[in-house]
Amino acid sequence: MQKFPMTAEGLARLEEELRHLKSEERPAVIRAIAEARAHGDLSENAEYHAARERQSFIEGRIAELESVIPSAEVIDVSRLSGNQVKFGARVTIVDEESDEEKTYRIVGAHEADIKEGSISISSPLAKALIGKTLGDSVEVPAPGGSRAYEITAVRFN
């Protein structure tokens, strides 16, 4: 079985999502399907079809989480330190062209969420950053051409 690196917080979020889906979402969609069935003709019942579609999504997500969670290899980020970029690091970078500053946390593929500032360890940016140190410049291939960034901070908190 392939192991996936993950932070403890990421694993806890996935376990909570699985609990929520099984204990709240699944029973709610089953009730919605039963209620829609009671309305009669299923072929023209939009509520029924929407509930079945939602059920399909929930069951798919439950199956995905049940396969990912046992495969998680939790990495204790609190034990890491230094100025070299590794899994779990919060890295602040500055775009050398626009001087725009951004901070990202490098996490496992199943817990990445760009809206929260976390990027997958398998993303092009994370791959370019891993192993580099504070003050290094990295070149990252992008669809619109390569971008250059300078690492201005590396933290493990």
TrEMBL record:
GO BP field: DNA-templated transcription elongation; regulation of DNA-templated transcription elongation
Function of the molecule: Necessary for efficient RNA polymerase transcription elongation past template-encoded arresting sites. The arresting sites in DNA have the property of trapping a certain fraction of elongating RNA polymerases that pass through, resulting in locked ternary complexes. Cleavage of the nascent transcript by cleavage factors such as GreA or GreB allows the resumption of elongation from the new 3'terminus. GreA releases sequences of 2 to 3 nucleotides.
Protein name: Transcription elongation factor GreA
Superkingdom assignment: Bacteria
Domain Transcription elongation factor GreA/GreB C-terminal: residue ranges: 83-155
Gene, per the UniProt record: greA
Residue ranges occupied by any Transcription elongation factor GreA/GreB N-terminal domain in the UniProt entry: 5-74
Protein family (similarity comment): Belongs to the GreA/GreB family.
Keywords, sorted A to Z: DNA-binding, Elongation factor, Protein biosynthesis, Transcription, Transcription regulation
Molecular function GO labels: DNA binding; RNA polymerase binding; translation elongation factor activity
Pfam families: GreA_GreB (PF01272), GreA_GreB_N (PF03449)
